[in-house]
Amino acid sequence: MSPEAATVDLLDRRAAPDLEAIKQHHFEHGWARVGPALTPAGAAALRARADAIMLGEVVHEGLFFQHDSPTGRYEDLPLGEGWVGPSLHYRKIEKLERDPLFLAWIENPLFERIVRAFIPGEVVIYRAVLFTKPASGGAPLPWHQDAGRFWGVEPDPFLQLWTALDPAPVEAGCVEVVPGSHLGGRATPLGGVVPDDVVAAAGAEAKALPLPAAEGEVLTIHNHTWHRAQVNRSGRPRRILTVCYMSADTRCLRKKHAPRVFFPVFRRP
After folding, report:
1. CA angle, corner 236, sides to 232 and 240, nearest 5?
2. Contacts of the segment 1-6: beta carbons below 8 A, 24+ positions apart
3. By CB atoms within 10 Å of each CB, which of 144, 187, 207, 230 scores lowest?
4. Which is nearest to 44 in space by CA: 216, 211, 195, 194?
């Protein structure tokens, strides 16, 4: 841990979730509540760091940025633009393992216990990504799965740890899931956004389950679970960090470029 990260008490040491119950619920329903884990001071520090990164006050080489849609439509999200200047309206920032404060949370002892309960052997992360919504609006994220050819790895990962840096009530566009949808595997070989006709055939709207979360609360989400997020109507920003953990034996299927090298976590000195 960097000296900077060591000055912030990120993990609530009182957090002692039942790992077997979490694992059972995760595989049965496609998600689970871990409960409060990030301290208020830690949440404030990570929010401040997120804003500093978006405003260009903290710079790390190789971060991926995607600005929010100018129209508020998911279909109009800018592709390939990356950093477009200081703004609090970036919707997604990836590769946050390059920031020492975010890395300290990604590798916190509770997360290590949870991940090792799911994944034997060496562990890497597919991605560590901040999803943000400004105080009002933010493009909705449609039903999707985090897997398939769109992700380009084999086998598909199955564990994401999701942390609310702000309160994430329903009106803020909290994550919603279709419980049990992971049991059907990929909706399409491509993965990513679930086509409208497949959504309609599955009756997803009637089955949608909002998962509001308090500041500092942690959820697990299975990569095959259909999930989405609506626009933010809360009047305050909504920032969440989601980290996908997977076995170091996972293979990158990319052909046009050299295979990706995934970032290892929880390694002992």
Report:
1. 70
2. 1/100, 1/104, 1/107, 2/100, 2/101, 2/103, 2/104, 4/100, 4/101, 5/100, 5/101, 5/103, 5/104, 6/104
3. 207
4. 216
d(CA 6, CA 103): 11
pTM of the model: 0.94
**Cβ–Cβ < 8 Å for 107, 2:** no
Reading the block at residue 129, the tokens are 């990504």
Q: pLDDT higher for 110 or 133?
A: 110
What amino acid occupies position 25? Answer: H
Enter the tokens of residue 47. 């929010």
Contact 225, 31 (CB under 8 A): yes
Condensed to tens digits (0 to 9), the pLDDT of residues 44-88 reads 999 999 999 999 999 999 999 988 877 666 776 767 778 888 998
